[in-house]
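Posted in: Structural Biology > Protein-Ligand Complexes

Title: Requesting predicted complex, zinc ion in pocket

I'd be grateful if someone could produce the 3D structure tokens for the following input. Sequence and ligand are given below.
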Amino acid sequence: MDRFCQVILSEATRAFDRPFTYRIPEALRRQTDIGSLVEVPFGSGNRLAQAYVVAVVEPEETTFDVKPVQRVLSARPVLLPDQILLAEKMRFRWLCSTADALRCMVPSAVSAVGDRSLRFAALVDPEEASSRLLDGEINRLGQYRVIELLLECSQAPVQEIMSACQVSRSVLSTLAKNGWIHFFRQVVARDNLSDEPVEHQDAFNPNLDQAAAIHQIIQTLDADESGRSPDSPAEYLLHGVTGSGKTEVYLQTAQAAIDRGRGVIILVPEIALTPQMIQRIQSRFGSSIAVLHSRLTPSQRYEQWQRILREDVRLVVGARSAVFAPLRRIGLIIVDEEQESSYKSETHPRYHAREVARMRAKAHGAVLLMGSATPSIETYVRSEQGTSKRLTLPDRISPSGLAHTQIVDMRQELADGNRSIFSRKLQEELRTAFSRGQQAMILINRRGFSGFVLCRNCGEIIRCPSCSVSMTVHTQASPDRPDARSNRLICHYCGRIKPLPEHCPVCGSQHIGRFGAGTQQVEAAFNQLFAPARAIRMDQDTTVGRLAHARILSQFERHEADVLIGTQMIAKGHDFPNVTVVGILSADLMLGLSDFRASERAFQLITQAAGRSGRGEKAGEVIIQAYNIDDYAIRFAAAQDFQGFFRQEIGYRQRMQYPPFGTICVITFTSMSDQMARESSLKGASACRARKEDSDSYSEIDIMEPGPAPIRRIRNRYRHRLVLKGPDPELLAAFLVPIVDRVDFGKTSVAIDFDPYQML
Ligand code: ADP
Ligand code: ZN
Ligand code: ZN
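-- Reply #1 --
Done. Output follows.
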């Protein structure tokens, strides 16, 4: 008797996103199981397509014309049954296809199982490329980065280039078309991560608060062992000020779960930014862990993933996508810095890892542990309502206690004749610290300090020709002559590069200049005031390449610089005991964005940055420079008063029905034609209105007027959007399903984003 299976095509759009039945030929029977990757003939032309087996089923009545599975591509299943169920849930929750969700769970290199060869790229003529690059022939940042990378390492797998340079495949195709690079296939050995031996570190003796937290979590783990219902996941919020020893709680509860034969996932915001966290986990658990993050090469990622699937490791640590790790019998999922926006995917499917973690914890009967010094409003509300249990670590481990914070009114500085970007107070604190051999960090808010170019005669701002945003000035030393510096304009949305004009393109005036300051200008101003103190800078432009972050951080740690200047990214997680001063420039420019999380972000950023100061024996100083010093987010952050901030913020969220008291869904319609994007948004809106009128269940859903997105054009594509509000995401998703599936939006692309972190 023949057996049959149901498969999901791995490249299916939502139109073909359903299980198809195939016959399993006798010869393939032993290799075919739920989760196998197979090749099946599809459509009238019987084109071969890759597919995942999602069920093995009894024969159906009409079995005579069922096509057979052609090949089994994986020796063993590549998906676990619980992952297939998870993909189904994601399909409903985030309106993606099942295949989209499954793609999050299987590394791309799995599709290369056939011949183990990967596509590589190399420069056609490195010497010529290097001279053409200096001639300014390249006007796209992405292309520039790719060429630079290939000049450095001569050849690299295409996937690896795409992730290291953060470019899409089309950037590479363009370079190939213009004769810069060529492609070839090459067999690769799947390499292991170079496991540098890390010195073992024993567990600390927990203090009373840590012990209480650890005890509760372990009790829940044990309760689960004796058959707690899988429907009631135990959810904890570990709220502990920075430096209170949350990591120790993670490590000891992880050990407890492993001792009980369960798997553990530890999610961290972005590995590149938190090398210390990884080191601490490695120093406790040695090499018996798998590390997954976005900057692994495809072969490294594949290797790590195989180790998990083979059950060689029980502990997985990684950034957002590690939440999908193919671990069996998960006992504990830890989400560190749970408020971080990097847990939200900004590409399709736009899932939130915190919510996926909750889904998986439920399915595995696991404990979900979220930790933060500044919990998100969403998570804190759950702990207030009793949906989760709150554990608190109120004190810092180190004797110095919390840093001392001060707000400086920059309007007053100006009135008193100080035109520097450094307030007098900050200057004084920096000098004191340097004179004692201590270090400092200076944080600027990139959005407020964009460094755009303005004509002082007619007010023209130089904008990107393909996007409706201003371009940013970047100063670059030329690779051959480090003393020669050139200024270029870069668009942060599409990466276009232009030379800095000498005259205003509109009125011809020469009074054209840079406005605002970026990290580079802060660095220059710092050098002027504080030389010979040494500055080191970390921002998106100095940190291309896989190791740049770690290199800069370890240089700073070795005290090869006195100050670290950077954007938001330096505020996170680093533990530098010798840092005693943190300066935050223009803290209030984070506010006033058209974003319901603006205050929350400002509060978190200031609190986090303050947490970087005085981590060691020495007490810390935090100077917050602002223009609008009365803002509640700044006030509460300076006072390190989370409760106060929370009370005020939930009032606003409740009034406006913003998360978690409601859900917003932003649907963006994108097209080369402004008219087409607009028409699609109108079509979407009228489909929504019709559906709302059709059924009483959706009376609570609000449909806003469609209109152009705040940034109307990115990469020459026009963007219109439609915003919906509803009481909860499930209802809103159910409301939208038939609209997404049945309304024909032609060539307009439609992106759906629930409770977005970027409202642009
Ligand atoms: P958090 O994660 O809350 O910011 P950390 O886990 O980084 O805090 O802890 C701060 C410092 O205190 C770290 O250097 C850590 O090694 C140390 N530490 C944590 N718990 C203990 C303990 N029980 N005894 C001694 N030192 C501890
Ligand atoms: Zn002008
Ligand atoms: Zn642009």
